[in-house]
Amino acid sequence: MRIGYAVAAFLVLAALWEAVKAAVPARGVAIGDLRVLPRTTDAAMPHLWTVLTVLGESDGPSTVGATLLRTAGFTCGLALLALAIGTVVGIALAVLMQRFGFVERGLLPYVIVSQTVPLIALAPLVAGWGGKMVVAGQPWRPWMSIAVIAAYLAFFPVGVGTLRGLQAPAKASVELLHSYSASWWQTLIHLRFPAAVPHLLPALRLAAAASVIGAVVAEISTGTAGGIGRQIIVFAQQATGDAARLYAAVLAAALLGVVVTVVVSVLEYALRRYARPAGGAR
After folding, report:
1. N vs C: which end of the chain shows fewer Cβ within 10 Å?
2. Which residue stretches of the chain are H helix?
3. pLDDT above 70: percentage of residues in the chain
4. Residue 280 pLDDT > 60
């Protein structure tokens, strides 16, 4: 059913795209110096079938489609790695803040403020710092900077969502485990973590999207080749009169987000027994 809704939404967007291209003048519509409707020339807004057919065009030793598949695969691996790192860091911070109230009061504001730092400004800094580091005797690789930058975006929703979930069990449930002489660790494993799952899963969906966005932006900001982000820049520079390749790359990046979200959906299916939210307060 979800797949059907996704396909229907894509078809609606495709129909709207072609309707705008057919109805809006090639030069767009402007009121004075303010443009209210975009240009619809092939250089600005190609037909969707042109975007699809360009996948078979030659792009050096391979086709455009093969290039996009290879670069999207590279970015997908980094996004999944960033999602894993962000999930581990987010859950660890949430457990720490739930365990110690003073840590939550002191750390949570900084966790929130951290997301206001522009990623495009942070990426060169991380790449510069990483270039001076050595990990296990190996020099820092550019892809490591991309993973760290993307994880920086991914950890926030996981941390906040998990913290809310860990605080969700009713006070009576916590006191019941205490009456059985359950330790803090046992309470965490048998009560708080299961109660946090309904809050964690939506957070993971947000983190999955954030990891893809972070990886693409980091590739562009650091100039790292091999990923879909850098390929978008390459095709943008080649777009002289026809932007079909550029839109094909953008579409590939969007589908990459869908792939990473599907991975999270598999995790949701595995944890479906904990899907019902727990009521009550901390």
Report:
1. N
2. 2-23, 48-53, 64-99, 101-114, 119-130, 142-166, 171-179, 184-187, 193-222, 228-238, 244-270
3. 94
4. no
